[in-house]
What we know:
The protein is about 25% helix and about 25% strand.
Amino acid sequence: MGGEQSLALPPEKGPHRVGCADVMVGHTQQGLFFRLFYPCVPRDGAERPLWIPRYEYCSGLADFSGHSRRWCAPLLSIAIGSCRVPLSWKAPFKPCSSGYPLIIFSHGLGAFRTVYSSICMQMASWGFVVAALEHRDSSAAMTYFCTAEAVREQWIPHQQVPQGQKEFYFRNNQVHHRANECARALQLFRDISRGNSIPNVLPQGFDLSVLKDSIDLAKAAVMGHSFGGVTAVLALVKEPGFRCAVALDAWMFPLENVLYPEVPKPVLFINTEKFQTPESVAKMKRLSSRNSQTKIITILCERGVCSMGPPP
């Protein structure tokens, strides 16, 4: 494959250089785990983190895809295990007296905190602080938390819909769990801004106190893809501190109909032509009819050329 440098995500395009670090708060499954992307002070020779952070996530992807761990996980590790993200691991945070806007990012079904690194890195390069959550509702391909006893790792595998259970009820419970995590993440940043001590329980973890006075909580948004897209919509209901939501190819199926009138803030839906279903688009239009600031954009692609158009 041409050596270690041959496989990497595209570099950031904005004016800021970007750093990242992992943050874990709490020693139970009810805590929070996310990768933080932020404008940083450039540092020569900084380590570039792996896109797939550990082999266990290859095992989780194999389980999610329905293939055997025995052969699929090693193949995934060989194919993408050396891919690196072109940013600086634990680089010094670049302070901002006016405050960076904040984005809480929710991943899709079978993903985890680093899958959307390219999107999160680009947003950080344009002056956002982005917390990409790793949800603990069993929708991630794999995740873990560290217990208080000797910092032992407790892994949480992906769970399929149990046999005999209707998918809507299973996914509805998950989306509420996810939206609650988004709300708790915003509260965490409020606590940081107040100067409260928030320990990062990971060994040699990133010091969250450096963020104080550099985040503008009046400009907090929630964003997500697919399952994360509908999570972002529901988070607007649960947490009034979010100004808006950005939903990338939102999978609207898990959200109960009674909540549609309760969505108080605007949503920007960005869809790809081939992914969406008429049922999901109809639910998006239901929201847009209630809020003139809610917009639906569909990316149309023909022969490799993409353009934006109205929803189908």
